[in-house]
Design brief:
The complex is a heterodimer. Chain A is an all-alpha fold. Chain A has five helices and no strands. Chain A folds into two domains: about 5-55, no CATH class; about 65-140. In chain A, helix 1 crosses helix 3 and helix 2 packs across helix 3. The longest helix of chain A has about 40 residues, at about 65-105. Chain B is built from seven helices and no strands. In chain B, about 65% of the residues lie in helices and about 0% in strands. Chain B has helices at about 10-40, 40-55, 70-85, 115-125, 130-140, 145-150, 155-175. In chain B, helix 3 crosses helix 6. Chain B has two domains: about 10-90, Rna Polymerase Sigma Factor, Chain: A (Orthogonal Bundle); about 100-178, Arc Repressor Mutant, subunit A (Orthogonal Bundle). The chains are: A mainly alpha, B mainly alpha. Chains A and B meet through helix 1, helix 3, helix 4 and helix 5 of A and helix 1, helix 2, helix 4, helix 5 and helix 7 of B.
Amino acid sequence: MMPRQTPEDMEQLISSYLDGELTQAESQRVRLLLEDHKEYRKVYEEMAKLQRLTHSLAMPNPPDARMEAIEKSISVSASRRIGFYAFWGGLGMWLVYLAVLFAKNLRMPNIPEALAGIVVFGLVSLFLSVVVQRWQEMPHDRYRRIRK
Amino acid sequence: MTAIQPSPVQELTAEHAELSAVFRDYNVRVFHYALQLVGDREDALDITQETFLRLHRHWNRRDDSRPVVAWLYAIARNLAIDLLRKRGTRNETEEDLNLPDAASVTPEDAASNSALRARLWTAIRGLPDPLKEVLLLRDWHGMRYAEIAEITGTNPTTVTSRLYEARQRLRRQLRGYL
């Protein structure tokens, strides 16, 4: 047997009914309650009006310029992460290169060889980051299809 | 057939595209939510920015089975709470919300909807924070109870009772105007 429900319990059900959060059986029960009881119908109508009014409260929109700046800051943060991976990836490749040199010659690479490794992997990383940056910007590039 | 694994750079580029889409879809909503919580436009803009940066930082921890919007709102809410704690008070300037001055509303004016909205907004601002946030998340932002529970760190039963309590208080305060 269902426990006896107070008027507050019924009004809480009406509140949830208004939000479409009840089960089918509960909704049916509330519909019958609203049909049979004028006072509950009034509660429902007042809650519904409150909901409509709350939904229509005006809020100022954020300034476009500031939103664009925020979007840009997220892009910058993304590019930094790509740069971060490129840096550590490059460093990793350079260490592998040094290890290969060491394994082949069984000696530590000399300074010119180590510097050459840094320069080559630096250039490769730079090239990759430029390609990635260009790739990211391509969808927003309005001049892409304009011939010189 | 083996699927081709995307490279880390491809993953980052895809992630950036996804984040941009989330930003475009939700930036205004997050700003409004932050403004409702802290009551100051500049602070709301800062919270919006920090929310999306944090989302970006933790993007790879997301759960694809759950909508991103609740996560986004939860981040904004935590930032707003931190800010209010630091500040120790809430700015509740009505200019920020583009509403008429509720104090000047007479019963005759209240017949018009704009005056009623001003009165309603004053009543909402007077609600305790847990009731106010649930009411705004449901009736202004259109969130489901489960989403509100996730954002506020409660459960749908608590949301149900808080929402009912908020509506009862508003009905009592606006008796004669509804």
